[in-house]
Each structure stands twice: as C-alpha cells, then as structure tokens.
Design goal:
32% of the residues lie in helices and 21% in strands. The chain is globular, with a radius of gyration of 17 Å. The protein has one domain: Metallo-dependent phosphatases (Purple Acid Phosphatase, chain A, domain 2, 4-Layer Sandwich). It is built from eight helices and nine strands. It is an alpha/beta fold.
Length: 246
C-alpha cells in the first residue's frame, strides 16, 4: 500500500499541481492532507477546490481554522502588516460554500493502512498550534500527544520535513507543498526554495518505508498566478521566492 502525505499548501496551486502530477505518474492508494490548505497564497479558492476534488481526508490546520473567523495578528513591524493584509485578503476571497468545505476538516485523521494504524494531525493531536521538531524531547511529545498513539503518526505545521522514531512509532512531517521556508546560513530571514515537499509511505506487511520528496515547479507560472490574483503586497510575497515582478 502506498500513501501520499501533503501538507501546508497555503493557496499555492502551482506547487500543488506539480505534486499531483508526480502522483499521477506513480499512483498511490490514498492521499492524506495534513492541513493549512488555502490561506497565504495567491489562489486560496482554487487550492481548496483542488484538494476537495481529491476526496481525501483533510486535517484542520491553524490557518484553516483562522479562515473561519479571521482576526488580524498583533502588528509588530511592516512585515506583520503585509502578512495580515495577505491573510485577510485570502479569507475574504473564500465564499460561504468554501467555508462549509473547511468545516468538514477533522482535528485528527485515523486510518487503517494495510493493518497499521495511522494518526494524522497538524501541529499535534491535541492542538494545531503545537510545534514538533527533531529536537523536541520525547517527554514533551508524550505530553502533547496525551493518549493518542499509532505506529504511524504524521503532522505538518513546521514546514520542515521530518522522520524520527518515537517509542515504537514513526513520527513524520512531509514538509510544505506551498511554502517550504528554509533558513540559509547568514541570511536575515527564511526564504522559499523553488520546490514543493511531500512524502510517500509504502507499507508491505509489517515493513514501512518513508520517502521524503521535493519536486521543482514553474516559478514563472507562480509569478503569473500572483500577479493575476489581485493579492496585496505581491512584490513582497514574490520576494520570498527570489522572484521579481518582471
């Protein structure tokens, strides 16, 4: 059995389509989306509609929940103002029907994958805001997970690919499809590399393999989508990708 994990699309339909094109060439039995589908990219409605077409389980992410009741973040600097403007624009683009779709997203997703239990979440099983990293102590994970446990556990939120062993389980993060922020040595802030991230799980009996993937996509198409969208602060948003308006 082959299962694709996608997460943190953030309204970047261009990146999502690149991932789905690869999955069409290497068919999987199941796709699971671990949340943050629409907000903070140029195509919030289109990304949401594309995920809905997949008819796959979707976890409620923090920006998904925020889109149902959008509230500006406290303004600390110019970047926060830009961030607020882009998020509020994305929420305003969504229709009542779109919000009905988001309300179908689940706090956690549980599946039986060829006899192995799977638990999907966004930040942790108890909150979509929790951050789990390679350095998070096992004791902290035990606290965040409470009574939740499965041999395969997967979340998103950090935009950082991860595979680590926790007790008798694999703890997996596929990274971000739409905003794979990466900090470079000496850089003042993170930027987005020109790839989309996802993962493939392969289950053969009791054998489990995890394939963390990154695939390039068309930055010219992303630029075109941004400039056609009417999103505010387009040059600032594109700058995180190293893309000029052109």
């Amino acid at each position: 059995m082959r299962v694709a994990l996608i997460s943190d699309i953030h309204g970047n339909l261009t990146a999502l389509e690149a991932v789905l094109a690869e999955l069409a060439d290497e068919p999987v039995d199941q796709i699971v989306c671990l949340g943050d589908v629409a907000i903070f990219g140029p195509q919030p409605r289109e990304a949401l509609a594309r995920v809905r077409e997949l008819a796959c389980p979707v976890v409620m992410g923090n920006t998904d929940a925020w889109a149902l009741s959008p509230t500006p973040h406290p303004v600390r600097d110019e970047e926060t103002r830009f961030f607020n403007a882009v998020e509020l624009w994305g929420a305003a683009e969504l229709t009542d029907a779109d919000r009905v779709v988001i309300r179908t997203f689940q706090p956690v997703v549980t599946l039986d994958l060829a006899g192995l239990s799977f638990l999907g979440f966004h930040g942790s099983p108890t909150s979509f805001n929790h951050v789990i990293q390679a350095t998070t102590p096992d004791e902290e994970i035990e606290r965040l997970f409470a009574s939740h446990h499965a041999p395969i556990m997967a979340g998103g939120h950090t935009h950082t690919p991860l595979v680590r062993r926790y007790q008798n389980a694999f703890l997996i993060n596929p990274g971000s499809v739409g905003l794979p922020w990466m900090a470079s040595p000496g850089a003042k802030q993170a930027h987005n590399p020109a790839w989309a991230e996802y993962a493939i799980l392969t289950i053969e009996g009791q054998r489990l393999s995890v394939d963390l993937r990154r695939t390039p996509f068309d930055l010219d198409a992303l630029r075109a989508a941004v400039l056609a969208s009417g999103m505010p602060h387009a040059d600032w948003w594109l700058g995180d990708w190293g893309i000029e308006r052109g």
